[in-house]
Design a protein that fits this description.
The chain is an alpha+beta fold. Helices cover 26% and strands 30% of the residues. The chain has two domains: 170 residues, Aminotransferase class 4, branched-chain amino acid transferase, N-terminal domain (D-amino Acid Aminotransferase, Chain A, domain 1, 2-Layer Sandwich); 167 residues, D-amino Acid Aminotransferase, subunit A, domain 2 (D-amino Acid Aminotransferase, Chain A, domain 2), CATH 3.20.10. It binds pyridoxal-5'-phosphate and 2-OXO-4-methylpentanoic acid. Pyridoxal-5'-phosphate binds next to helix 6. Its EC number is 2.6.1.42.
């Protein structure tokens, strides 16, 4: 098969792929992240040898030694992006090069080896191509999950000398169950996600493990997501457990927390900033406090708030809850700015609109 970074992908035949009628039934309502395609990509890394043994083969369990370093010290990073079916029967991915570069930055922070961008993108292309029948029609998409973990069998605390890079794919619909209405969020005033100097800007599993207790608290309060405040002052809004956040004001301007090393530099976030600026909207990347959020919602200066990310796309936030009380944004539903940016982004991602920034990557 094709070459990438001088590495050839070996193809292993699937002995029993999912029958087409079963696949069709699954694709009717895939949910999010519970069903998977037939194949996966694996590439190994060994210190002194580099990346080797690139395989596209049947998806299945991976044998792991109980002393594999990742199971003890969580040296693991991942990415998330989507492939979409296009009207001409082809498939595209949205900005995979950005995911490749963020993966490299996450790897650097977690003392892991750098996977070349072309190898990362080639792995995605192989999987999307081989599992093309798994890309849902309509509003769905194929969520791609590249990840890498420490596989060396050793209990000393040090960077692993061996890693496994894998890509799996999951046909998905909407991340949130309440598809049309806005979601509610819980502001975590005690538990934080990331501190200055920590791993907040890296997409590592540990960040998500650290977010789960606060997410549980949010669920207990009837909220879909948790909003984290900064770890130093517990004052500034950072991001959600798995999404960035934007605020839209009555003067037409928008604001989002700056990338200070404690939040994930979202690719959706960057795309929205670019699209909003294309529309002539002023976007500030400046700190916004929880107190100000509450005051602006009450005064009516704040019109909209939305969460954004690959999984969530653009999801309006209607209600904010915290131990200090609750408040509503606007009329508690999605509003004009959110909808306009959402449809503009989705139309580009699905090749229904021109792609002025060259973000769409054709697979076939
Ligand atoms: N913030 C966190 C913590 C996330 O997990 C995600 C999702 O990947 C995002 C933000 C949004 O990033 P992106 O738009 O690249 O998906
Ligand atoms: C994504 O949007 O890709 C994420 O990783 C976030 C998670 C909530 C699924």
């Amino acid at each position: 098969m094709s070459q990438s970074s001088a590495l050839e992908f070996i193809r292993q035949a699937h002995p029993a792929p999912t029958p087409p009628d079963r696949r069709t039934a699954i694709l009717r309502d895939p949910g999010f992240g519970r069903v998977f395609t037939d194949h996966m990509v694996t590439i190994r890394y060994t210190e002194g040898k580099g990346w080797h043994d690139a395989v596209i083969g049947p998806r299945g369990p991976i044998a792991m030694d109980p002393a594999a370093a990742v199971l003890h010290y969580s040296q693991e990073i991942f990415e998330g992006l989507k492939a979409y079916r296009t009207a001409d029967g082809g498939a595209v991915m949205f900005r995979p090069g950005e995911n490749a570069r963020r993966f490299q930055k996450s790897a650097e922070r977690l003392a892991m080896p750098s996977l070349p961008e072309d190898l990362f993108v080639a792995a995605l292309e192989h999987l999307v191509s081989i599992d093309r029948d798994w890309i849902p029609e309509g509003d769905g998409s194929l969520y791609l999950r590249p990840f890498m973990f420490a596989s060396e069998v050793f209990l000393g605390v040090k960077p692993s000398s061996e890693y496994l890079f894998i890509v799996i794919a999951s046909p998905v619909g909407s991340y949130f169950k309440s598809k049309d209405s806005a979601v509610s969020v819980w502001v975590s005033q005690d538990l934080t996600r990331a501190a200055p100097g920590g791993t907040g800007a890296a997409k590592c599993g540990g960040n998500y493990a650290a977010s789960l207790l606060a997410q549980m608290e949010a669920a207990k309060e009837g909220c879909e997501q948790v909003v984290f405040l900064d770890a130093t002052e517990r004052r500034w809004i950072e991001e959600l457990g798995g999404m960035n956040i934007f605020f839209a004001f009555e003067d037409g301007s928008m604001q989002t927390p700056p990338l200070g090393g404690t939040i994930l530099p979202g690719i959706t976030r960057a795309s929205i900033i670019a699209l909003a600026r294309d529309m002539g909207i002023t976007v500030r990347e400046e700190p916004y406090s929880f107190d100000q959020w509450r005051a602006d919602a009450a005064s009516g200066r704040l019109k909209e708030t939305f969460a954004c990310g690959t999984a969530a796309v653009l999801t309006p936030i209607g209600t904010v809850r915290s131990r200090d009380g609750n408040f509503t944004i606007g009329n508690g539903r999605s509003a004009a700015q959110t909808e306009k940016l959402r449809s503009t982004l989705i139309d580009i991602q699905r090749t229904r609109a021109a792609d002025p920034h060259g973000w769409v990557h054709k697979v076939f």
